[in-house]
Amino acid sequence: MSQKIDGTLQAAQTLRAVGPASRPGISTDAPARPVQAADSLKLTGEATNLQALERSLSAAPAIDAERVAAVRESLQNGSYRINPEAIASRMLDLDQQLQG
């Protein structure tokens, strides 16, 4: 079947009702029953590990209060030392991880 698309609707004459009443052998007297889902989902080991990691991270505090207190104390007493090589190395590591 082919139909020219010209913006006019001529489908009204070709449409027919589709539903339980128009299908032979289907009773409309019985109430509808929900359909049991047959789909299932199985997670890979990696996905399961990621879910466990997500749960543990969501339970952990966002800020390590002990580390903050230690840095604050070392800043106040002047013993905090900045290691530019370690910072640069970590920045390069992060850059390589992001680039894949």
UniProtKB/TrEMBL annotation:
Segments forming domain Anti-sigma-28 factor FlgM C-terminal: 39-93
GO BP term, pick one: negative regulation of DNA-templated transcription
Keywords: Bacterial flagellum biogenesis, Cell projection, Cilium, Flagellum, Repressor, Transcription, Transcription regulation
The UniProt record lists the keyword Nucleus: no
Pfam families listed in its UniProt record: FlgM
UniProt function note: Responsible for the coupling of flagellin expression to flagellar assembly by preventing expression of the flagellin genes when a component of the middle class of proteins is defective. It negatively regulates flagellar genes by inhibiting the activity of FliA by directly binding to FliA.
Similarity section: Belongs to the FlgM family.
Protein name: Negative regulator of flagellin synthesis
Taxonomic source organism: Stenotrophomonas lacuserhaii
Organism classification: Bacteria, Pseudomonadati, Pseudomonadota, Gammaproteobacteria, Lysobacterales
Designated gene of the protein: flgM
